[in-house]
Structures are given as structure tokens and as C-alpha cells.
Design a protein that fits this description.
The protein is an alpha+beta fold. It has helices spanning 28-32, 50-58, 80-98, 112-130, and strands at residues 2-3, 9-10, 15-20, 36-42, 69-74. The chain has a 3-stranded antiparallel sheet, covered by helices on one side. A two-stranded antiparallel sheet has the order 1-2. A hairpin with a 5-residue loop joins strand 1 (2-3) and strand 2.
Length: 138
């Protein structure tokens, strides 16, 4: 059972985990041991609440297929068990990230005093630079 929050959890039967061989360099161990984990989670067929499903399907994430299946591959660790834990943690983080509500941005304007300070500093700088010009001795 993968616990997402106090009220939401996913039964392990809904998460498909397959052990596959890892890619890349690593010597003989890579060639003979299936340590990488390929995780598949069908959003539509899951027991997640409807609100979670809508938010996940609305995500534009390359890890979510057009059919609504989350596909994660974990191969950063040397053991199958650690890769399994890492893949489940990434699935949990993906689902949790959907539920974070962004604060609505309110447009703001600079205050009158900050605008006045800015203009005064620009005027002062302008006078300083103008005073560096050529001196006319006539």
C-alpha cells in the first residue's frame, strides 16, 4: 500500500513493477542482473479520488502517456529494492505535486515614494555624468 496522504492511498495491485536490466556502463553486473525498475500506473483504472485523476490527466508531463498511464524508470541504485523504493517515491511525489494549489498572483504597482526615489537617483546620476564633460574655458 502506497500512502499518498492521510486519506489517500494506492493498493500495490494497481502499481505494475517490472525488473529490467539497467542501461549504461557498469561492468559485468549490468549485463546479467535486472536491477532497474519499470513502473506503470494506470490513472483511469486506479482507486484515486476523481479530483486527483483529473489533475493528473491534465498535466502535460512526458511521463504520462496519451492513454493516461504513468511510466517511470528507476535505475540510479545498484540494487533492485532501492530502485523499487525510488520509483515508488517518485510516483508519490508526482501525485502529491498535483495537489499543491498555487496562490493566485495579484498584480502590484510600485509605491509613489519608490518611484520618486528612483527618479531622483536617475537625475542625480545624470547630473554627475554631465559634469564629467569637456570644460569650456571661454
Amino acid at each position: 500500500m502506497l500512502r499518498i496522504s492521510n486519506t489517500v492511498s494506492i493498493p500495490e495491485a494497481e502499481i505494475e513493477l517490472n525488473a529490467i536490466r539497467s542501461q549504461g556502463a557498469g561492468g559485468q553486473n549490468v549485463n546479467k542482473v535486472a536491477t532497474a525498475i519499470h513502473l506503470r500506473f494506470d490513472i483511469q483504472a486506479s482507486s484515486l479520488p476523481h479530483y486527483y485523476k483529473e489533475k493528473l490527466l491534465a498535466l502535460s508531463d512526458k511521463r504520462i502517456t496519451k492513454d493516461g498511464v504513468i511510466v517511470l524508470k528507476s535505475q540510479e541504485h545498484r540494487t533492485q529494492e532501492k530502485n523499487r523504493e525510488a520509483a515508488l517515491a517518485r510516483l508519490k511525489m508526482l501525485i502529491k505535486s498535483v495537489m499543491v494549489v498555487q496562490k493566485k498572483r495579484r498584480p502590484t504597482k510600485p509605491s509613489k515614494s519608490s518611484q520618486k526615489k528612483r527618479m531622483d537617483s536617475k537625475t542625480k546620476r545624470s547630473r554627475l555624468k554631465a559634469s564629467r564633460g569637456k570644460v569650456d574655458l571661454d
